[in-house]
Amino acid sequence: MVCLPASNGDPRNPSSLQYIDPSGRSNSYQQAIMEVGEVIQFYDSDKRFPAWGFGGRTSDGSVSHALNLNGASYGDEVVVVEGIMAAYASSLRNVALAGPTLFSHVVDKAAHTASQSLSQNSPKYYVLLIITVRDRELRCDGVLIDMAGTVDALVRASDLPLSVLIVGVGNTDFRQMEILDADNGRRLESSTGRIATRDIVQFVPMKDIHSGQVSVVQALLEELPGQFLSYVRSRNINPVGAPAI
Description:
Elements: E1 2-5, H1 28-40, E2 48-54, E3 56-57, E4 63-64, E5 67-68, E6 77-79, H2 80-94, E7 96-97, H3 104-119, E8 126-133, H4 147-157, E9 162-169, H5 175-181, E10 201-205, H6 206-210, H7 216-221, H8 224-234
Parallel strand pairs: 1-2, 1-8, 8-9, 9-10
Antiparallel strand pairs: 2-5, 2-6, 3-4, 3-7
Helix pairs in contact: 1-2, 3-4
């Protein structure tokens, strides 16, 4: 599952972080999709991925924060990573960019999908990749308007077979994302006082990747095995033919 923001500049303008270069050079979003997607897709048997955008103004004038990138009114899947890339490029041509930045909608949508798999007794684990932006020079503040709602959504989702990977694009600090990551050892706490069952978020700023400090795949996926194991252990799930955990 992939989510992309649509609120940071005209993609026809070379200064936009979402600029589609006619020469084929990838922007930061495309780079993150390809590098992470090419790894994760090998763990998906049918290679079909829900792909959503947030902050997109549709033809009826409404702003959606869980927009089907494939342009369909129903059915949100695309085929393989190249399908995500094609849907992303197409959406930039057909959807007007808007704001504000909201995460709770897409987190809830991913959580609903993961919850459905449990109700259908389908042993699947889901990974939601969110690519967002914050760049002061380009006037893309990337500040979450629904921080409390996002935390609540993540706390609810912490019981589900779901991990959330966030890539921050831009040259400004992402303190809010670091709070969601909860790498300080304290689990997220909802507005009602509920503590997350487990940590399900991993955040990586793209500027660290561009500086050569770390690869996007390594940085994003380093916590994923532990998050997966924490879930299966909490559910006493064992692989077929494997000894008890």
